[in-house]
Amino acid sequence: MIKLTYTNEMKIQDVLWEDEREDLSVMERLQRTLVDDAIRQGWTGYANIYIACKNEVIAELYKDKESDEDVKYSSNCIRLIKNLENTNNMNLY
Predict the structure, then answer these.
(1) pTM strictly above 0.85
(2) What distance in Å separates the CA atoms of residue 3 and residue 12, rounded to the nearest whole number?
(3) Who contacts 39 (Cβ-Cβ below 8 Å, separation ≥6)?
């Protein structure tokens, strides 16, 4: 079972995200950290994290690197945590 930590820094960025004031580089770093932590805990999916339209960080979660179906999208830390924890290695579908 994957259990990720929702840090104070993540909470701050998520609050800022609500008004589109998050620091994109910080949000991207935090989302990459969450994915790395999930991988260390056994998550075997594939994540593509990028800045979209110069105003939002998007994390796309896939079952594996070759998959283009069953994508889970996240644009803030709490949603990414829920998606990573609930996917349990992307065996949702």
Answers:
(1) yes
(2) 20
(3) none
d(CA 93, CA 45): 13
- SS3 string, 10-57, reads HHHHHHHHHCCCCCHHHHHHHHHHHHHHHHHCCCCCEEEEEEECCCEE
CB atoms under 10 Å from CB of 33, counted, come to: 16
For residue range 57-84, what is the model confidence (pLDDT) as tens digits? 999 999 888 887 778 999 999 999 999 9
CB 4 within 8 A of CB 85: yes
**Contact predicate 49/28, CB 8 Å:** yes
Sequence-distant (≥ 6) Cβ neighbours of residue 51 within 8 angstroms: 24, 28, 57, 58
